[in-house]
Design brief:
By secondary structure, this protein is of the alpha/beta class. It has 14 helices and 21 strands. The strands form six sheets. The chain has an eight-stranded mixed β-sheet with strand order 12-11-8-13-16-17-19-20, sandwiched between helices. Strands 2-1-3-4-5 form a five-stranded parallel β-sheet, sandwiched between helices. It is elongated, with a radius of gyration of 24 Å. The protein binds cytidine-5'-monophosphate.
Length: about 400
């Protein structure tokens, strides 16, 4: 079987001189087994003809929102839905800016806005345009939203300049696509438990103790695992997030730490790994008042008792399972994270400083360090939780091998 057999790839071609290289990209994608659908911007048609791509892909080529209607599908939605992956190569500064701003003024940008498929962009342009802070900001924005960027190469550019901005070789771009698509099924047959969100501990019928966790990180991890073929049990505390659509994610909703413990333990023996991203309450009220607690004295003293430490218990019972913990800290991140790694018998721990405003709780980004059993550690810059989820799953995959 070829690397891209059965995959539908939407190739967006924008109007830079490197557009001619997109012909070879289309050809190589096809040879790797993909069904390739091309959308060209108007400017791209000044560099290469539509006919070239039509001959190479064996598919109609889209160049405008206003082409003659050939069937009754709304064309940009149909293409957006059909794609397993969107690759834009070359991606001009103009395309990056429009995509970062969410504009939809032609067939390619409209399709991009409508698709839920993963997106890879290969920027190519003059060095000064590439290094311009506005382009760099646009790239950073797109990365934060989960777009994968293939960095341009350095060398001699068509405009005569030397520097960064060249489209990488078509073979390298297609290798990147194959590597991305290939890893999608690497976890087939593996069963992984993911916990997400915070737990809430009831005080009375209307009140509870809780925390700020929204579950975004855990849901992103579950999706990353599912996209590689794993069977995922997602044990989620109360969150506004809806159950993921993937057929191989089974979502179990719980409220308290004790319910989360039950749900996790009931699946643990047969699991290959657990990624415990939930912010589990360490304490719960000793008693839950049967009726709403009334205002009486000036002070109300709550008596709290310890909740079970789920991850510690999993560490004690560990057999084949790979265990991944999270450490949300407000100071001494490295020291506390390493202590937890050892105490809970983990394979690695994802540590972050939750006092930072731009990362951590309730936002779409995170900035973390990973600490491993063998003493290694890795530092990652601010990135989207979805991108980070892929990194965490990469590490899990390596440990499972
Ligand atoms: O000790 P600490 O709560 O900081 O450890 C965090 C890690 O332990 C997280 O992975 C969290 O999901 C897990 N944990 C747990 N049960 C608890 C508290 C935390 O499984 N009661």
């Amino acid at each position: 079987m070829k690397a891209l057999s059965g995959k539908k790839i939407l190739l967006g071609v924008t109007g830079g001189i490197a557009a001619y290289k997109a012909v070879e990209i289309a050809s190589r994608l096809r040879k790797a087994g993909a069904e390739v659908h091309v959308i060209m911007t108007k400017a791209a048609t000044s560099f290469v003809t539509e006919l070239t791509f039509r001959e190479i892909t064996g598919q109609p080529v889209n160049t405008s929102m206003w082409d003659k209607v050939t069937n009754y599908n709304v064309e940009h939605i149909a293409l957006a839905n059909l794609a397993d992956l969107v690759l834009i190569a070359p991606a001009t500064a103009n395309l990056l800016a429009k995509a970062a701003a969410g504009m939809a003024d032609d067939m390619l940008t409209t399709t991009l806005l409508a698709t839920k498929a993963p997106v890879i962009m290969a920027p190519a342009m003059n060095t000064n345009m590439y290094e311009n802070p506005v382009t760099q900001d646009n790239i950073a924005t797109l990365k934060r939203r989960g777009v994968m960027i293939i960095e341009p190469a350095a060398g001699h550019l068509a405009c005569g300049a030397e520097g960064r901005g060249r489209l990488p070789e078509p073979a390298d771009i297609v290798d990147y696509v194959c590597a991305y698509m290939g890893r999608t099924q690497n976890l087939a047959g593996r069963k992984i438990i993911v916990t997400a969100g915070g737990t809430i501990e009831p005080l009375d019928p209307v009140r509870y103790l809780g925390n700020h966790s929204t579950g975004k990180m855990g849901f992103a991890v579950a999706e990353a695992l599912a996209s590689r073929g794993a069977q995922v049990t997602l044990v989620a505390g109360p969150t506004f997030l809806k159950d993921p659509d993937a057929a191989n994610i089974h979502t179990v909703r719980v409220e308290s730490a004790r319910q989360m413990r039950e749900a996790v333990l009931s699946e643990y023996d047969s699991a290959d790994g657990v990624i415990m991203s939930a912010a589990v309450a360490d304490y719960r009220p000793q008693t839950v008042a049967p009726e709403k607690i009334k205002k009486s004295d000036d002070e109300l003293v709550l008596h709290l008792v310890r909740n079970p430490d789920i991850l510690w218990e999993l560490g004690q019972k560990k057999q084949q399972q790979i265990l991944v913990g999270f450490a949300a800290e407000t100071c001494n991140v490295a020291e506390y994270a390493c202590r937890k790694l050892a105490k809970k018998n983990l394979d690695f721990i994802v540590a972050n400083d939750v006092s930072a405003k731009d990362a951590g709780f309730a936002v779409d980004n995170n900035r973390v360090q990973l600490y491993f059993r063998d003493g290694r550690s890795e530092n990652y810059p601010l990135m989207s939780k979805r991108q980070l989820a892929d990194i965490i799953v990469d590490k899990l995959e390596t440990l499972l091998k």
